Amino acid sequence: MEIENLTKDIRARAFEKKDPKTPEQVGASWYNDDLTYEGISKTLFMILPTPGCSWALGDSGGCTMCSYVSDCTLEPIDTETILRIFNDHLSRHPINEEDKISVKLFASGSFLNPYELPKDARDEILKTLVNLGNVTEIIVESRPEYVKEEYLDEIFEIIGDTLFEVSIGLETSNDYTRLKKINKGFTRDDFENATKLMQHQRKTKGYNLKTKAYIFVKPILVSEKQAITEAIETAEYCDSINVDRLSFCPATIHGGTVIERLWRKGAYQPPWIWSCVEIINTVRDELSIPALLDTSGFGSRRGPYNCKKCNKDLKQIIIANNLTQNKIEYECECKNEWLAEINNSDMNNSTVKVKHIPLY
Q: Membrane spanning segments where (predicted)?
């Protein structure tokens, strides 16, 4: 596929310009309030040191919008190093002061992939968290091909009745967009099969297992209006197959990606913040599924943007309303400009599907 060749070429050039990170540089953590299944609770967020996403490191080149692999070691890390860095970050936060906390573990790829995170490191991390006595939720990310009954059995043998959520980057329910524009490398059926497996495990084995879908807002070669429609349709699809939670991820411009190449050529712009508000308000109004809206990059040159008057205010309102799940109520004169773009963005669209991206 040409999209894979282009993505891989851009990725390789980015690797040439950037030295791999050390495990200590990759590891990171922060601690704040977040929405959990039991309400608002203190949450520990931790980025584990890993070689990076196997999909991005392989022949595919990875996804067209993601550069997280560039912030990884690119080489396997031994268990001892992973655990040392994990325990160091664990000790930096006052987690023992809370009766209940949630822990979100990011591996810049798939937590369930033993190449990225060795099984013995994974198991020791889970044992440590359970032994703290106050961790009620553990949230991880994975591609669907690593969601296996064997892995889930191993995990729940350690964590018992602790809630365990697996977040999958579905991005969109539209297979053409996911495969041809995002270069995700898996189908909607793959996502649905992983989701059904987890639901079956919950039903037959009593595992406290939850599912979450990441939905990407405005992939390349998608208009502003199409981006809104596709994100809402994806939420409706997720709700129809009983996904437990949603997280909308509006596009930001990562370095060394196809999306950056288009952006630099003036052929792509991240979504309006108004588009993100329209999506989250519609979902909260029409569906019962809890939905979060990520605000990374909001108001920046490489992120979702409205105008200087309302960028900061809307970002803070969205963050606050992620906790309450209330709709976003706000007005600004720049909204008329956004509406004009929405109403006219598809006027000159071709009905022929894009088969290649002439960017070489």
A: none
**Which pLDDT tens digit goes with each residue over 40-88?**
999 999 999 999 999 999 988 899 999 888 888 889 999 999 999 999 9
Which pair of tokens denotes residue 282? 């519609």
Measuring CA to CA, which residue among 74, 47, 68, 25 is closest to residue 257? 68
Q: How far apart are CA 124 and CA 115, in angstroms?
A: 16
Average pLDDT, the chain: 94
9 in Cβ contact with 64 (< 8 Å): no
User: For residue 317, what is the domain's CATH number?
Assistant: 3.20.20.70
Host domain of residue 199 = 2-344
352 within domain boundaries: no
Cα(326)–Cα(317) distance, integer angstroms: 10
Residue 350 lies in a domain: no
Burial readout 258-293 (b: 16 or more C-beta within 10 A, e: otherwise): bbbbbbeeeebebbbbbbbbbbbbbbbeebebbbbb
Q: What is the pLDDT of residue 116?
A: 96
Backbone angles phi, psi at 217, to 5 degrees: -100, 115
Q: What is the enclosing helix (H) or strand (E) of 277?
A: helix 273-286
Domains: count for the chain = 1
pLDDT at 348: 55
d(CA 157, CA 161): 9
Spatial CB neighbours of 206, under 8 Å, sequence gap ≥ 6:
none
**Identity (one letter) of the amino acid at 283?**
V
Q: What does the DSSP 8-state code read for residue 305? A: B
How far, CA to CA in Å, does 263 sit from each of 155, 179, 220, 229, 359? 41, 20, 9, 22, 12
Q: Residue 118 and residue 143: Cα distance in Å, rounded?
A: 16
